[in-house]
Amino acid sequence: MTATLASDITSTNASLRRFLHGLPGVDQVGADARAAMLATRSIKTASKAYAIDLAISMVDLTTLEGMDTPGKVRALCAKGLRPDPTDPSVPHVAAICVYGDMAAIAREAVGDRLHVAAVATAFPSGRASLTVKLQDTREAVANGADEIDMVIDRGAFLEGRYLEVFDEIVAVKEACGTAHLKVIFETGELKTYDNVRRASWLAMLAGADFIKTSTGKVTPAATMPVTLILLEAVRDWYRQTGQRIGVKPAGGIRTSKDAIRYLVMVNETCGSAWLTPDLFRFGASALLNDLLQQRQRMASGHYSGPDYVTID
Length: 312
Description:
- It is a single chain.
- By secondary structure, the protein is of the alpha/beta class.
- It has a single domain (3-300), classed as TIM Barrel, CATH 3.20.20.
- The chain is built from 14 helices and eight strands.
- It has an eight-stranded parallel sheet.
- The mean pLDDT is 94.
């Protein structure tokens, strides 16, 4: 897709609507069936060990609670840097994900060893003025975030005010400066798979570096069929533009078995180039503990006691 064509597509709400509604419709039954089929793939022990370490390296270790404290964030950072203090061969996570006011605490704790992702733009609802959203973004970046996770205005999207959503993403991208932008759709509120595909293309047209399923605050959050639609979108975008966009499922992914299923789906849909933290992340908190426990079981042949992992 040329820059001129993209500019034509996004010149008016009508032209953007024509493009988005002209995308091939999603076969819901087919998407569900393909996701279910990929979930049945089995992998051998050596590959499973590799997949567990890869999944650990892709975790955005997250705390997004009103009761977050600097102490909790520092503890989370320590865990992200050394997930298993008894085993230095365990890889570190990809990023620590926090509210913007905690980004400085996280950056001080991790230095340049991990990414610091901050949620912004009135997360999780997105219900604020553009001025507030941009200030939210700039403050998070100033505090040390090198990744911003923004939420789209789902109300505007569902009403068909696509250009308004597009312009907001563009403005937030500019406010990010050099920080990478992850655009959250809150797919549980978009209702249809067609809307998920449209939101994916809208965000990529607007300059998203990553597209992300959910805030983790709405049910359902990440699902395999929805993530499959995002993966197909970034694959097709790459085929048209030569640009690789990342994907981040978030919310509800808790077990190693689930994480490995997602990695199989990434490989089958987009190829091995996407099997890197630069292009695929898990938004999770509980997932890391299960990955550590499974890794330890594979190494020793048994599970450790309940104190082996920390409760975040």
